[in-house]
Amino acid sequence: MGYEGSVRIGELSRTTGVPVPTIKYYVREGLLPAGTRTHPNQVDYTDTHAHRLRLVRAMVEVGRLPIGRVRELLAEVDEPTRGPDTLYGILGAALLTSAGRTEPVHATETERAEIERWLADRGFRVPEGYAEGVAEVLATFRRLGVPELAGLLDGYATAAMAVAEVDLAVLAAVPDRDAAAETMIVGTVLGDALFAALRRIAQATVSARVFPGPPDQSQC
Amino acid sequence: MGYEGSVRIGELSRTTGVPVPTIKYYVREGLLPAGTRTHPNQVDYTDTHAHRLRLVRAMVEVGRLPIGRVRELLAEVDEPTRGPDTLYGILGAALLTSAGRTEPVHATETERAEIERWLADRGFRVPEGYAEGVAEVLATFRRLGVPELAGLLDGYATAAMAVAEVDLAVLAAVPDRDAAAETMIVGTVLGDALFAALRRIAQATVSARVFPGPPDQSQC
Asked: pTM for the complete prediction?
């Protein structure tokens, strides 16, 4: 398990930069295993706790995931029998579905069937629930009076395939196969944040070219 | 303003599918203008309210944005003097920064400078705060013991440019220029959700090819 001595909560907080009340909150929420009580008033934590704590923190702070989804993803980290393919399906489901969602779905049966056909025609393998996700966004464009935005679909699908090729190439090259599930989760959650930032930068770049506007006042 | 008669809250709820308590909550939170009191016990709502309500709902439900960020984005919809370029910067900032964030930043000065140089070398125009966002994800990969994931950067940057080209081409073609800010926000927020769904589908597709595994039990 990689234990190399143990520390008290103050030291765990100091080395990870996570405040003590936050550590206690994560333990209560089941995101971090409780420490070992070695004395009536002493609880010890190990390197394993520090590692898990950094992972939780990264998903919450950088990945901006709500606690409930972090819990779902950690359950996958701790389940070593999954293949990467299954894992991607689970990961995606955990990232996309909001646990408490009870609102009705707006896409019609016809719209969903149409998207399923479109995805199948492109040779996509579609994990359960995803065609619905795509159909839902398109139905929302229509409801908001901008059906033209459905034009994003083709170009996005091509770019998404390019991103997935990069994901798999990089993830498959990470040496520690024991930590494959964790690497995949980190790569997917933080990869989303990374891609989102690069996408905004790219939009600003293309936008400045398409709409030159007045000379820029800023230093970028 | 496009008013064509007015309705009471029950009818507004029925036509938009948003429950009455939720409508009242959005009004309290400043996401929806209050209706007009036409009688001591009657408040009227118009098409403008219905439209705004659908927009809020789309950002919360499909875009999965927290209320605070929806409020920031709506302030941009209601500010008609922005050019698309400025708007992208503001949009991105509203989407990426979490209002209550007080945690220290993990990327070092050197790491940030390195990323800024890398982005400049690629000809990227970088809105304020974005180089930091990229540096932060890379620093987090390192802290989590998977620095190899920095290998995602190059391929992501290329794909992000492809996505931005699609965004601008589609958004620029939407006919109603008066609603440009709203279209851009809808396109960006829901476009993120659309791209995320397509990315998971693409990952499952590439993953199934790279790791064929046992014959699939499911029907996809």
From this structure: 0.75
